[in-house]
Amino acid sequence: MLTLLKSWVRPDAFQSVLEVRSPRWYNACLRITRDADLAADAVQEALLKAWDRRDDFRGEAALDSWIHRIALNAAIDLARRRKTRAEDELDDEAHFAQANEQPENELTNKAFVSDVDQALQRLSTRERQAFVLKHVEDWRIDEIAESLQTNPNNVKSILFRAVRKLRVDLHVWRGES
What we know:
- With 177 residues, the protein is mainly α.
- It folds into two domains: 1-86, Orthogonal Bundle (Rna Polymerase Sigma Factor, Chain: A); 102-177, Winged helix-like DNA-binding domain superfamily/Winged helix DNA-binding domain (Arc Repressor Mutant, subunit A, Orthogonal Bundle).
- It is built from nine helices and no strands.
């Protein structure tokens, strides 16, 4: 990956990195910001920061992971600055890698996605951010604490509340009454 980062000097190499990896960064930022423009801004900001800090890249993590983390932090910062509750623009395919061909299952999948999206919207911004970072992006508690500028115990409390709220909102899908 170090050679990949060094190859950014060549515009064609930089373009190929963007084409392959930027959709992943964008989708992650979209889950945090819940706003397409903010997500795009976060990715752009992350790429500028990565370029400015390219000499700081030590190669301890993959280049993709390094930029991904910068993008998520940028998304959190942008969401923090502009607290909006924009309509969720996530693609249903982001939730289901393979859609079932049967019409009744497709309707069920769409209903489930809609219910999950609504449940996530009911979480506070901080709860949603912590939940996405932990359960979608697979961050560790200490990483989330650093990103949210709080302590690990507070992150655990935030996650507990988020999961409890989601369980209540999605109990129908868990086969409970």
